[in-house]
Amino acid sequence: MRLKNGIAKYIKSTALQRRIMRRKALDRFFAFEGLFVMGVALLVLFALVGQLAADGAGRLSWQFLTSFPSRFPAQAGILTAWIGTLLVMLLTALTAVPLGIGAAIYLEEYAAKSWLTEVIEINIANLAGVPSIVYGLMALGLLVYELHLGQSFLTAGLTLGMLILPMVIIATREAIRSVPPAVREAAYALGATKWQTVRDHVLPYSMGGILTGMILALSRAVGETAPLITVGALSFIAFLPHPPWQETFPFVSFEWLFDPFTVMPIQMFNWVSRPQDEFHVNAAAAGLILLVMSLAMNAVAIVIRARFRKRIHW
């Protein structure tokens, strides 16, 4: 009897060891597979960036950054394109970020759970996956034809703002949900109101996730072309928008909001469509500048996010 029990325990222990070994082998396989996939993705990324740098690095110069577009490749520059990109991104952020954060706070902290809020949440999730050209067509009908805003910076900023608004709302809600309930309960126990709890505790603790969502949303917006072409972005502009200031009171001018515009992706598309190889080199150089601009925007947001996280002490 003891022999049978010993044999049974040995068989069970051996089977358990084999199962553990198989699981460890499976874990190592998945770790290797993930590392392999990441390596392939990085290799492809480095190859694309390297090819872009090899084609366009020689064209980078101060003259290229400060010159207007031209029909002569050697004289063409991206002055209007990169200024237009910065202004459109500024309007996009001013449009989408306050509205997105405010909507997320209301839905997560104030709105009662009902069929209406469920419908709103479903629509927000669906809007985040709508193709960008649909936003361009909507903006063309609403902003250009109905509101008569024209083919302007304001139209472009509002269009891209509507495009990334669902992403900002979803990212902000997820960041707010990650705040432990104990933070809210402690604030309420000390006599804080609902708004004081959200303003002084929930938002600071969730700011890292909110900024991460903003980075992803603006990174998508900076490379969008289809909705801007739809609302009337120009591919050739040989003048700068009006300055945002003036010599007389109130010293601030909003005339530039209604100026025609172009952006870096559209300028690149225009050059790539040309048959001359020199214009293709210009497009590669413009791509490098756009990549640097995107990385710089992300770096600023990452620095701000890191500072917010350092101020948090659990």
From TrEMBL:
Major localization listed first in the record, in broad terms: membrane
MF GO annotations: phosphate transmembrane transporter activity
PROSITE patterns: ABC_TM1 (PS50928)
Segments traversing the membrane: 29-54, 74-107, 119-145, 151-171, 202-219, 284-304
GO biological process, one term: phosphate ion transmembrane transport
Top-rank lineage group of the source organism: Bacteria
Domain ABC transmembrane type-1 as annotated: residue spans: 82-301
Metal-binding is among the record's keywords: no
Membrane topology: Multi-pass membrane protein
Alphabetized UniProt keyword annotations: Cell membrane, Membrane, Transmembrane, Transmembrane helix, Transport
GO cellular component: plasma membrane
Matching SUPFAM superfamilies: MetI-like (SSF161098)
Subcellular location as annotated: Cell membrane
Keyword flag GTP-binding: no
InterPro entries: MetI-like (IPR000515), MetI-like_sf (IPR035906), Phosphate_PstA (IPR005672)
Gene3D superfamilies: MetI-like
Sequence similarity: Belongs to the binding-protein-dependent transport system permease family. CysTW subfamily.
PANTHER family given in the database record: PHOSPHATE TRANSPORT SYSTEM PERMEASE PROTEIN PSTA, PHOSPHATE TRANSPORT SYSTEM PERMEASE PROTEIN PSTA-RELATED
NCBIfam families per UniProt: 3a0107s02c
Protein name per the record: Phosphate transport system permease protein PstA
Organism: Nitrospira lenta
